[in-house]
Amino acid sequence: MNLEQMRSFVAVAQLRSFTRAAEHLHLAQPSLSRQISTLENDLGAELFHRSRGGSTLTFAGESLLPMARRMLADADSIRRDLAEIAGLRRGRVRLGATPTLCISLVAEVLSAFRAAHPAIELQVSEHGSRRLLEELAGGELDLALITTSAATSTEHFTVTPLLVEELVLISSRSAEPVTTHPTVDLVDIARLPQIALHSTYDLRIATDAAFEAAGLHPHTVIEGVEMDAALRFVERGMGVAIVPAMVLIDRPGLQSVRLTEQPFTRTISVARPADLSPTAAVRVMQRTITDTATALAEQTGATLQLAGEAPQAGGRSAAQ
């Protein structure tokens, strides 16, 4: 059985005539008659009593009619649903991102995507890069915004680098600048009261390693906080912090200075499963991410550059 046979069968049943049904369906009558005959042979039962006065349903035909109508209705519903999904009138995108990206790049991306496609359901998972790749591999995410380094395993994913971002030192705009110079070195930073992120942050691990390699012991006044709390504490003048440059977006209460040493950088990438074709909604989301990243790179300048562009100062890989 196929949908064309069902459509022909329902038309003959409704119009009680092979001739009128063929005209209604814009088919040649012999073609329609063959479809009905093939259907009867496949089912092993006659569906119509054929006579000069018209065609009426047999008992088998009466039994088939409601099922045939339901099949056609289901097929139409499927077509409508798929058309809506293809046209981004329905659908879902499951996006993962690291905590620092959730309060910067992701907020900009979701704002733009939501404005253009309000009917698409959005789900966000906020974890470290390693956990996000696990969720991506497990089918829990469609896309993940991660930070990558040479040690990141991307064997089962399609990973597209977007941005190379510097880490900067931030302080409260209401306080005196930490230096009158355009950059600040680790020696001077170590003397300042610092707000330290939670020990599980790769960013914290990287900065601790940098101080240790330089033989420095930073003056930490608050330790173990999440990124958003660290930014708020710095805004209130409680200390300084080393953070990714992008988190300064829409933070007028903060000021930043670049590092004198070869700046720590991190590469921001978008990852998706390599063995799955993305849906229309996921493709548009990835395009929105790329467009937003490009705009941010133009806005922030040297501290945030498109992947593939040469940094203005040589950089050492830092946190995820």
Compact description:
With 320 residues, the protein is an alpha/beta fold.
Question: What's the oligomerization state?
Answer: single chain
Structural class: alpha/beta
State which percent range the strand residues make up: 15-25%
Detail the poorly predicted runs: 310-320
Gyration radius, to the nearest Å?
Answer: 31 Å
Secondary structure: number of strands: 14
Helix content: 40-55%
Which architecture of the largest domain would the CATH scheme give at its second level? 3-Layer(aba) Sandwich
Q: What is the CATH class of the largest domain?
A: Alpha Beta
| Fold-level CATH name of the largest domain | D-Maltodextrin-Binding Protein, domain 2
Q: What is the N-to-C succession of helices and strands? A: HHHEEHEHHEHEEEHEHEHEEEHEE
Count of alpha and pi helical runs: 11
Number of domains: 2
Summarize the biggest pleated sheet: 10 strands, mixed
Distance between the termini: 56 Å
Globally, the shape reads rod-shaped
Average pLDDT level = 88
How is this fold's topology laid out?
Layout: H1 3-15, H2 18-25, H3 29-43, E1 48-51, E2 54-57, H4 59-86, E3 92-97, H5 99-102, H6 105-116, E4 121-126, H7 129-137, E5 143-148, E6 157-172, E7 183-184, H8 186-191, E8 194-197, H9 202-213, E9 220-225, H10 227-235, E10 241-244, E11 254-259, E12 264-273, H11 280-300, E13 304-306, E14 316-317
Parallel strand pairs: 3-4, 3-5, 7-11, 8-9, 12-14
Antiparallel strand pairs: 1-2, 5-12, 6-10, 6-11, 6-12, 6-13
Helix pairs in contact: 1-2, 1-3, 1-4, 2-3, 6-11
